[in-house]
Structure formats: C-alpha cells, structure tokens
Amino acid sequence: MGKTYWLLSSTEENFNATRKLEFSLQGVDTHQRRKAVRMAEEDRMIFYISDRKAFAASTTLISNHFEDHDRIWKTHREAEDFPHRVKMRADVVVQEEKWVDAMQIGPRLEYVRKWPPEMWPLALVGMLHIIPQRDFTMLEQELKRANIDKPARRRGRGRRGRRGRRNRGGEPAARVDPPGSALLTAQVLDDRASPTESPSR
Fold it and tell me: Does residue 102 belong to any structural domain of this protein?
C-alpha cells in the first residue's frame, strides 16, 4: 500500500506542545477517528497552524495508529484528550519567524480547488486531511526554501569610496587630482616664493 500524505491543522499552542516533544508524537481528536485509524508507518505529515495561517513543519510517521489518553494537547472540549496517536520523526522544521505564509501558497493547492479562491481556508477546517502528493511536495519545498538563509547584502560601497579606495595589496590607492590642478598648485607655490616688490614712489 502506498504512502498517505496528511495535512494536520493545529493551533499554535498545540503545535508548540508537539515541538516540545521534538515531533516524536502526535495526537488527533476523537472527531477524526475514521481518518486517524488509517495513519501508518512511512506516511508523511505537514503541519498547518490554523490561528496563524502558516505552514511550519513536515514529518514522517514511524508507527501505525494507536490509542493513548495522556493529556498533552488542549482544546475547549474538556473531555477531549486527542487519543488517536502516532509516533513520528521531524523532517523539516521552520522557526516561527520563517513560517510559510499560507495566504500566499494556500490558493495554489489542488486540495482547496472545490472552494472559491477567497474561501480556501474553509477547506482546512477540521484537524486531519488527506492531501495529494503534489500538494505535499510543493509545501515541503516551500518549508525547505524558508529554512535557507539569504546572504546579507554588502553595504557601504559608495561610502567606502569616499573614505578612500584601496588597491589590491591593501594599501591606500594614489589620489588622482582633477585635470589642471597640478599647474594651478605650481603657480600658487611660485607666487609664494617670489619676493614682494615695493611699490614705486
């Protein structure tokens, strides 16, 4: 049987709870039981932060579905303990300041095409979604791209030129005077060296 590609919609608070576990475990709520029991080893999962509208991580499942009732994740329903669990390992994890903006990439997903473009977030209501492999691959590539630091631009080129250019050996380059300045300088020096003549009476 082939892999299934999952999109898990989580609040930021619950995503941080999963992060604290180093993405070793994920629970799914009781409303998603029919899908959750299909989670299996080698499946892939993308994390969507619903209250931030951002994609934040991808993982690979390393166990089949099982049930457990330790309280880790939170919701407004007091009885909910996210019992449908799976073990996993992190693949791509993006720092918060680099999370991928879902408002930019979300409308491009095949999975949301049945919704009007301006209403695509409604397609991700509910915690667990099975998405096309193409969507998963595109989202994971965006996560990887977000993790690549852009090289900082070199600044102050023009200002350094004003301070004084340097040659390849690191020594200050010879100053180039504007045309005619040497002749003017020589005339000034010659005038200063000549004796002052007394006015005739």
Answer: yes
Residue 124 lies in a domain: yes
Q: How many domains does the chain divide into?
A: 1
- Residue with the bigger pLDDT between 2 and 99: it is 99
Backbone torsions φ then ψ of 12, nearest 5 degrees: -60, -40
Using pLDDT thresholds of 50, 70 and 90, give the confidence band for residue 196.
Answer: very low
What six digits make up the tokens of 16?
């941080």
More confident residue, 177 or 95: 95
Is a pLDDT exceeding 90 seen at residue 63? yes
Q: Is residue 191 part of a domain?
A: no
Q: What percent of the chain has pLDDT over 90?
A: 69
> What DSSP letter does each residue of 90-117 carry, written as one string?
EEEE--GGG-EEHHHHGGG-GGGTTS-G
Task: Render the burial of 144-164: b for 16+ CB within 10 Å, e for the rest.
Answer: eebeeeeeeeeeeeeeeeeee
DSSP string for 33-83: HHHHTT--TT-EEEEEETTTTEEEEEEEE-S--EE-----S--S-TT----
Regarding predicted confidence, which is higher, 77 or 150? 77
Q: Identify whether 192 is part of a domain.
A: no
Instruction: Yes or no: say if 28 and 82 are a contact pair by the CB < 8 Å rule.
Output: yes
